[in-house]
């Protein structure tokens, strides 16, 4: 198992809202794991948001 330090709260604050920290973490997971593509995540979020 590999651990990573991701400053999600700091990144979310730089984006403009601490509320998006979970999305930052999701993006990190997608980037590191390769288990699902960023496009798939975008599609799922769009489907669930409406």
Descriptive notes:
With 50 residues, the chain is an all-alpha fold. The protein has one domain (8-49). The chain is 66% helix and 0% strand. The protein contains 3 helices and no strands. It has helices at residues 8-15, 21-33, 38-49. Helix 1 crosses helix 2 (21-33). The longest helix has 13 residues, at 21-33. The chain is flat and about 30 Å long. The mean pLDDT is 91.
List keywords for this structure.
50 residues; 3 helices; single chain; mainly alpha
Question: Which structural class do you get from the secondary structure elements?
Answer: mainly alpha
Major beta sheet summary: none
Shape: flat
Rg to the nearest angstrom?
Answer: 12 Å
Oligomer: single chain
Q: Please trace the helix and strand order, writing H or E for each element.
A: HHH
Helix content: 55-70%
Low-confidence stretches: none
Count of separate structural domains: 1
Amino-to-carboxy terminus distance:
36 Å
Total number of helices: 3
- Percent of residues in beta strands? under 5%
Q: pLDDT average, as an integer?
A: 91
Number of beta-strand segments: 0
Task: Give a quick rundown of the structure.
It contains 3 helices and no strands. By secondary structure, the chain is an all-alpha fold. The chain has one domain (8-49).
Protein topology:
Layout: H1 8-15, H2 21-33, H3 38-49
Helix pairs in contact: 1-2
């Amino acid at each position: 198992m590999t651990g990573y330090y991701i400053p999600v709260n700091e990144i979310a604050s730089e984006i403009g809202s601490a509320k998006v920290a979970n999305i930052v973490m999701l993006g990190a997971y997608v980037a590191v794991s390769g288990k699902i593509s960023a496009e798939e995540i975008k599609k799922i979020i769009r489907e669930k948001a409406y």
